[in-house]
Amino acid sequence: MKATYLGLDLSSPVVVGSSPYTSTLSNIERCAAAGAGAVVLKSIFEEQIFRQAASMERMEGYGDAGEYLERYLGDAYKGELLELLRAAAATGIPVIGSINCMGTGDAWIDYATSMQQAGAAALELNVFLLPTDRRTPAQELEQHYADIVRKVVAAVTIPVSVKLPQRLTNVLSLGDALLARGARGVVLYNRFFEPDIDIEKIAFVNGDPFSQPGELRNVLRSTALCSHALPQLDVAVSTGVHDGTAAVKALLCGASAVQVCSAIHYHGYEVIGAINRFVDEWAGRHGFDTLASFRGRMDYGSSEGDFYQRVQYMKYFPHGVE
Ligand SMILES: Cc1cc2nc3c(=O)[nH]c(=O)nc-3n(C[C@H](O)[C@H](O)[C@H](O)COP(=O)(O)O)c2cc1C
Questions:
Q1: What is the mean pLDDT of residues 118-123?
Q2: Which residues contact 41 (CB under 8 A, 6 or more apart)?
Q3: Share of the chain above pLDDT 90, in %
Q4: Which terminus of the chain faces fewer neighbouring Cβ atoms within 10 Å, N or C?
Q5: What backbone torsions phi and psi does residue 315 show, to the nearest 5 degrees?
Q6: How many Å lie between the centroid of ligand 1 and the Cα of residue 19?
């Protein structure tokens, strides 16, 4: 089923999210062959360049050549990514570049223009600022998102979307600020590395990087609210889309596209085709012949949209549980 996302015409609303499944040309070719509407490349991380430069400095005795190393490694890393982007664009499906914008400098603006030149159809900005300072109010952190978008939008002519973290106080107000600065869409949501603890070893371990299907529900509510309050902003649902049923739910809530990552880990690239077939079959069964004819049918503005306001378990187990 055809879709429009960020002004791009897609053959399917199923987009492969930024992940190892989009980090090599052969994986991107597998996404395209399986029927993905677009792919979001693995993010370019400024942080990675800094870390690599710092560790080379420490371990290999490069002395105080930090700045040079950063530039050298940055150019090599960026060059590889742009090469991948050029090759991926030749597969025929839209390729969305992804930039992790967290450094204090503005290097990511340079990445944005280079990605456009290399053939990116759009850009997705992966921003997350972990609050670790009790004196930094949420508004200050969120202003940073808006500033990043303003700078990137001024530097490129391709559409820009922002991949947001899940725990924002008011995603609608941030969405509004991003829209005012030229963002065309938001991705709800990013899912980050979560440190866990092994209590026997009293040591850190890695949390499971892959989502569970139940994680979709909270995203559905935000999608329904966002797509109703900010219809000019395209929403792509990321987190918890594991099958066709989940994709249909996201589209009914008003999403323009769904992004998959963990679904490929659990079920292989074939899951993309399975989701496409399910959406087509479901739409046919319900008499919808285009995505526009059912997208947003269950958003916050729909007749029963008040349901999304239910947040407390008022009526459950009023006499306690056995
Ligand atoms: C191993 C792994 C690597 C990821 N790398 C990135 C990344 O580079 N940039 C990004 O924006 N999201 C990244 N993500 C997040 C995914 O794009 C996606 O938002 C998240 O996994 C939730 O979607 P899912 O439920 O379909 O997995 C990564 C996820 C995984 C599991």
A1: 97
A2: 18, 22, 23, 28, 81, 84, 85, 88, 95, 96, 97, 98, 120
A3: 75
A4: C
A5: -100, -5
A6: 5
Residue (of 98, 77, 66) closest to 238 by Cα position: 98
Alpha carbon 294 to chain centroid distance?
23
Q: Which CATH number fits the domain that encloses residue 190? A: 3.20.20.70
Rounded to whole angstroms, how far apart are CA atoms 155 and 114?
A: 10
Q: Which domain holds residue 144?
A: 3-309
Residue 108 has a pLDDT of 78
Q: Is 213 in the pocket of ligand 1 (CB under 6 A)?
A: no
Q: Give dist(CA 74, CA 209) in Å, integer.
A: 26
Q: Does residue 234 belong to any structural domain of this protein? A: yes
Q: Which atom of ligand 1 is nearest to the CA of 262?
A: 27
Question: Is 321 within a domain?
Answer: no
Indicate whether residue 98 lines ligand 1 (CB < 6 A): yes
Number of domains comprising the chain:
1
Least confident of 35-44, 94-103, 226-235, 245-254: 94-103
**Residue 179: CA atoms inside 13 Å, Cβ hemisphere, count?**
17
In a domain, 319, yes or no: no
Q: What angle in degrees, to the nearest 10, is found between the helix axes of 66-89 and 46-59?
A: 140
In a domain, 265, yes or no: yes
207 close to ligand 1 (CB < 6 Angstrom): no
Region 8-24 average pLDDT:
98
Two tokens, residue 293:
């004819």
Is residue 167's pLDDT more than 60?
A: yes
Neighbours of 170 (CB within 10 A): 11
